[in-house]
């Protein structure tokens, strides 16, 4: 673990891998140090913003005993998906299997929200399965809200219409982010997700 | 309940408060007023509680009609035609007209009682990147004014320096990815004359200058960033993150602007010369 400088109000904790990030984030948020304003987990790092002293924060961050990633058990949510995405056949080709097998693998895996970013409520979901999907060569200017997508080792669901370069495999009617709802974001770091094949809609 | 009606907005006028801190883990940016000192001062001058919503006006041009008797205070970039850094009374039917600022970029208009639009995720701030909060102001819109106030502070005028119109100097400290750049790259960052790009907005101040030499290439996994982060995209020229910056980013952060100089960043105008110095 390395602690890197990030201005007068934050420190960046660099960890070995995503599993370690999940475990560190779980332990940190279970017992947050005083004066912590925001905690942002990402693929290899956790950014911690404070309203207090950076020295005090650094000491607290070094003292965090990370929970082992596999022991992090958040609640489970099921997301129904109509698997008719425009890139489904391309993804199947990339993986050397049929579209039906992509769906079978996507629904069989248990996914975990590793972190959020890109847009409010956009979760980067990982699974124990091996996914390694390149982004589209040219990003779409408009991806519809509810689009279920793959990129790299991650799966995600676009919370609202936005540009995007991920490969689209399906869509869900579930509102992933709704600022009038509490909680507004359905996905939060540590939450487990299962995608369910909802047929042809 | 009293209100204001927007007659003209100028290039961009939004509603801002202290923002949405504490929700970055859900991908929700902090947003909030860009020049936090000017915003807070405007609220204090009219006896508003901390965090009351005010108007952030970019490059003047706002024209509003007082639908009732109101007490207002205007701070930040000094616009022609209006009093600055002092509480003033606006009688029912009067029109407040902000001219072009002589220096700086963002002017704050606080109204005693605060702008009382419904909060979104705990804040009345317009977040232009995420599309959260109230939409930017448009002509014809009526803005309700709240009634939650504290005693007037009894201050006639707050002596505050105007934003600089000449070269701005920003102190910076090394960021988490300083080592992605050569020593020559760092030296270039803290010595070369930059200019503010016209491409700047509430997300970030973009600087035009000579690209920085990198020590390593390749992709950085996206990581969390705080306000003041100086991100270096492949073009090699800096982007300083402001209020509406995304919570994570994938380009290396070579440095951070010190907290004390962040409000200066909010007032930088396109074309203005900027120098970054090692803190």
From TrEMBL, chain A:
Residues 1-187 form the Carboxyltransferase domain. Keywords: ATP-binding, Hydrolase, Nucleotide-binding. Pfam families: CT_C_D. GO terms for molecular function: ATP binding; hydrolase activity. PANTHER family: 5-OXOPROLINASE SUBUNIT B (PTHR34698). This is KipI family sensor histidine kinase inhibitor. It comes from Kribbella shirazensis.
From TrEMBL, chain B:
Residues 25-279 form the Carboxyltransferase domain. SMART domains: AHS2 (SM00797). Keywords: ATP-binding, Hydrolase, Nucleotide-binding. SUPFAM superfamilies: Cyclophilin-like (SSF50891). InterPro entries: CT_A_B, Cyclophilin-like_dom_sf, PxpC. One of its GO terms (molecular function) is ATP binding. PANTHER family: 5-OXOPROLINASE SUBUNIT C (PTHR43309:SF3). NCBIfam families: urea_amlyse_rel. This is Biotin-dependent carboxylase-like uncharacterized protein. The lineage of its organism: Bacteria, Bacillati, Actinomycetota, Actinomycetes, Propionibacteriales.
């Amino acid at each position: 673990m390395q602690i890197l400088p990030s201005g007068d109000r934050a420190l960046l904790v660099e960890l070995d891998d995503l599993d370690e990030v999940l475990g560190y984030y779980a332990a940190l948020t279970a017992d947050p140090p005083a004066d912590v304003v925001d905690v942002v987990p990402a693929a290899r790092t956790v950014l911690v913003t404070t309203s207090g002293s950076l020295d005090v924060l650094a000491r607290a961050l070094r003292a965090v005993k990370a929970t082992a990633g596999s022991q992090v058990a958040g609640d489970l949510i099921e997301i129904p998906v109509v698997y008719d995405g425009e890139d489904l056949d391309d993804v199947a080709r990339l993986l050397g299997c049929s579209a039906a097998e992509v769906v079978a693998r996507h629904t069989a895996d248990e996914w975990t929200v590793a972190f959020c970013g890109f847009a409010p409520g956009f979760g980067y979901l990982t699974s124990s399965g091996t996914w390694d999907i390149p982004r589209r060569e040219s990003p779409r200017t408009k991806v519809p809200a509810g689009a279920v997508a793959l990129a790299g080792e991650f799966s995600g669901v676009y919370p609202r219409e936005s540009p995007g370069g991920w490969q689209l495999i399906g869509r869900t009617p579930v509102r992933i982010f709704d600022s009038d709802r509490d909680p507004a974001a359905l996905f939060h770091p540590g939450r487990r997700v299962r995608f369910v094949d909802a047929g042809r809609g | 309940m009293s209100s204001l009606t927007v007659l003209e907005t100028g290039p961009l006028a939004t509603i801002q408060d202290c923002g949405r801190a504490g929700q970055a883990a859900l991908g929700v940016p902090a947003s909030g007023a860009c020049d936090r000192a000017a915003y807070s001062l405007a609220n204090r001058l009219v006896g508003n509680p901390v965090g009351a919503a005010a108007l952030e006006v970019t490059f003047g041009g706002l024209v509003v009609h007082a639908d009732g008797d109101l007490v207002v205070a205007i701070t930040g970039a000094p616009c022609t035609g209006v009093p600055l850094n002092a509480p003033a009374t606006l009688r029912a039917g009067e029109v407040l007209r902000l001219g072009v600022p002589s220096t700086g970029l963002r002017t704050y208009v606080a109204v005693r009682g605060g702008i009382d639009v419904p909060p979104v995720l705990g804040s009345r701030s317009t977040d232009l990147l995420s599309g959260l909060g109230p939409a930017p102001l448009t002509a014809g819109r009526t803005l309700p004014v709240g009634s939650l106030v504290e005693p007037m502070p009894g201050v006639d005028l707050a002596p505050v320096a105007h934003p600089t119109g000449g070269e701005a100097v920003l102190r910076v400290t090394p960021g988490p990815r300083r080592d992605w750049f050569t020593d020559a790259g760092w030296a270039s960052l803290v010595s070369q004359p930059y200019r503010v790009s016209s491409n700047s907005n509430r997300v970030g101040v973009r600087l035009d200058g000579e690209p920085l030499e990198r020590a390593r290439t390749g992709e950085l996994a996206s990581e969390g960033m705080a306000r003041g982060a100086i991100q270096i995209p492949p073009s090699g020229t800096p982007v300083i993150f402001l209020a509406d910056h995304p919570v994570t980013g994938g380009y290396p952060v070579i440095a951070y602007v010190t907290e004390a100089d962040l409000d200066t960043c909010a007032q930088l105008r396109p074309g203005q010369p900027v120098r970054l110095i090692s803190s």
